[in-house]
Amino acid sequence: MKKVKNRALCALLIVGLMVLGLSVYIIRFALNGDDWVSAAFNSTVYNGGVLSVGTLTDRNGVVLAGITDGSRTFAENADVRRATLHAVGDRLGNIGTGALTVFAPRLIGYNIVTGAASLTGQGRTVALSIDSRLNVEAYRALNGRRGAVMVMNYQTGEVLAMVSSPTFDPANQPVITDDDPAFEGVFINRTIQAAYTPGSTFKLLTAAAAIESIAGIETRVFECTGSHTVQGGTITCPRAHGGVTLDQAMAVSCNITFGMLAIELGGDTLAAYTERYGLSGRITVSGITTAQGNFEVAAPGTADLAWSGIGQFTNTVNPAAMLRYIAAIANDGVAVEMNLLEGARTHTRRIMPSAMATRLGETMDHHTDANFPGLRMHAKSGTAEVGGDQRPHAWFAGYITNEGFPFAFVVVIENAGGGLAQAGPVANRVLQAAVRGH
Amino acid sequence: MEWLRGLPEQLAYIDIMSYAMLVIRFFLPFLAIVIVARAVRSLLKEKSEAETWGYLSLPNGMRIDLNHWENVVGRAKTSDVYMEYPTLSRAHAAVIRDDKGDWRVYDISSKSGAMLNGDAVTGKDGLPIKTGDLLSLGGVELVFIAIDEHSEYEQAAARTRPGVQFKQRTTLAFLTQFQILLGIHLTVALGERASVAVPLSFLGLIALTWVCYIFTRALKRVAFEVETLAFFLSTLGLAVTASSAPADIVRQLMLLIAGVAAFFVVGWFLRDLNRAKKIRWPAAIAGILLLIANLAFSEVRFGARRWLEIGGFSFQPSEFVKIALVFAGAATLDRLFARRNLVSFIGFAGACVLALAMINDFGSALIFFVAYLVIAFMRSGDIATIFLSVGGAGFAGLLAIRFRSHIASRFATWGNAWEYANAGGYQQTRAMAAAASGGLFGVGAGNGWFQRVIAADTDLVFSMVTEELGLIIAVVTVMAILSFAVFSVYSAGESRSSFFVIGACAASSILAFQMLLNVLGSVDILPFTGVTFPFVSRGGTSLIACWGLLAFIKAADTRQNASFIVKTPKPPVGDLIPREIITSEIIVPEVEE
Q1: Which has the least CB within 10 A, A378, B50, B480, B573?
Q2: Which member of B436, B501, B525 has the closest CB to residue A33?
Q3: Considering only CB atoms, which chain B residues are within 8 Å of A344?
């Protein structure tokens, strides 16, 4: 009997396995429960795939998405609805990065104790950091052109505007077919899910690498003849800039200067800086991972290498990633993680020395630019050639140092032409509204 | 504690009725913990003194107790009577008592032989032995003494009865409270979906619970923990039915009554060891016949042909065969030493597993296989044989996966349910979303949506319980089933016969492993096999079979007057004579030098 008794212990093996498996489940339950309840088929809080609890507002309490009689409604104003579509999301979650999807656990009021079943079934109110008024300004300024506008507070990381175009009215969602050019990529939030050829805005990176890596760069004078032939091709400028310093080269966006700097620095150095400043990797915006940029190391001494230092070749950069880099320059070299929730705590990380940030800021000086009255503007434009017979993408990225308005921005308009001419006015309109206040 | 912040704001909205429902919702897990904790602690903490059924006297006058009906005498420390004589074999002889109090001695695997009063002990039937007989094992001379009826009665009277530290009826009162509150919550929450059958069924359940308890007390039995746990689980089963199929609730209650009846019937068979042993072969043959009938006449449902329909009543034969498997597998000690006995059991178990594989019921096949492993190991203690059969089954499993696309697709989805949320992971992802929605306290019985998903109240019932009643109750439910296995192992040391030890461990292993497949399969930790959660899943055959298996666990409870399945001695006729006098009157024969 003693033997049989000892052998009986084998039944405890099953008990042990069950306890182990259950523990794994409980840990997963605690860690992933918020994701599980946010599945669109969870009828506790979704009705036909539409989140049926929770209210989203902007930073000023303007309701962006609410519940009326148990069904999902959006902002009262149609332009607010269109301008905040990508930040808020649509009914069915086609826009996967929308707040209705990403912040569903918060809207549901999920916690492990009461699960998704809040005591009243009302869900929670979540305030986004965006200002619907600025979004509307950006939306109107884009005027139907495809593109992305993003504005953030570079000291707190709060995203104030996040507009992607084309857009639609989520309250009266049109029938959208896959091949309709008017709605090309309409479910993509171009600020965080797209990556564009950066064009001359990339020169801010080449300059940073040059300032740190090349001795005597500040005293050097670069000679621009309008055209320079290197192995495998010719680097051109719209006109001959003559002898230019680094600041002048940046101000006139001299391709030859930065092309030659790229060759001097080498592809590996540029790639290292691109990675360090987050332009080729992915960043996160309130936990949303952005589209990945691209930087390809070209062969030494070639035109490809030169063009890669000017933001052409195969380079791509995500607008939010560019904004983060610009914001770090504005914030004395410290990158603040972007946040879409009002008053949320964020992480900060120094990505460049203070002196470098100051120096790069100087090269971006647009204080006296009549295009931006009243704005202490630091910016870099980009006119990104995209090949074929397409017009270039227009970029304008920078920040202002007006007292009380520590705002950085990025504007990209697809196939719009010159950066300063096309994207500049969009930035101006949004920032003027931001500075003027209500 | 973010959830606390919004609490006052949320509470301001709701009316008195909702408050009451809220209180019930948050109180039920507390009751569940109390019920299960009380029952389990009572099972493990109530004192159980060893029983003594006889003695072996050594030449030096030392007396060794025989604490079981089945005792191995030998040199190995694992023998029940162990003596360090070099001439003794490790497991030399077995001294075994039957129901009637008749003893036999068997030479099990001795090298030097065994003699009883000068005759060699041979053959599989051994020799009868009675008080005063001289047993010679490898030259070691022992006198056998069995205790008589008087001492037996006296011993029984002296042993502690359970129910002292934990009053059974107090635990039961908690269970009644649980049943009442759950019934109220369901009736209110279901609203128009609930007919009057729902509250009536809960009243019926409460009545059934107490009738069972009173019947037990009438049989002069005082322990009710095992039944309390099973009734707690069955209560959840009734709640699940009320929520998912309110129209079926009366039927479910009837099936529960049938299950309780099965419990008493199987218990009655087990009450007499001779009777239990005799039923082994008929049970095995009936099991095989059931499976053959299943193979021949069954219909396909949800990818497996596990249902058999007779006279409008459909049932799963494999559930009943589980009971047959335990009957066939359990064996008394004298049979454990003959390999031939194990071989016939392996044949039976193998046939069962094969039959289940052929009807595509791989979940049940796996349960049978694990039950087989437990039984085979307890009977032989032979790791090598076990590993061999595991290898064989592994190979067969691979073939099954290779050739049965249905199974293969489940393995492909395994661990990636969320990637296949609208294909192979459909049920598991819904299960997890619903479970997480319930949190620790649930959305409230009858308030869930998950019951609309196919098999929510059977194969996915763990998540349905989590959704409606919360993770706390779901975990407590798991603990209740596991406690059967822990108790079976725990009580093995005081068991009378290995038949009961093997029976209890096999039965509780089946319940525990079936639950393991159900729970872990439905939440994507194991491949989804689609087996039921013991007692809780809606459906008849499984419920009845679980109650039947429960009798094996109840049979292992040897605490005094704990189990109706364990006989107690009748009061002897005439005056009680103190034990000392009886034993001193026994004349111990002189041992020749």
Answers
A1: B573
A2: B436
A3: none
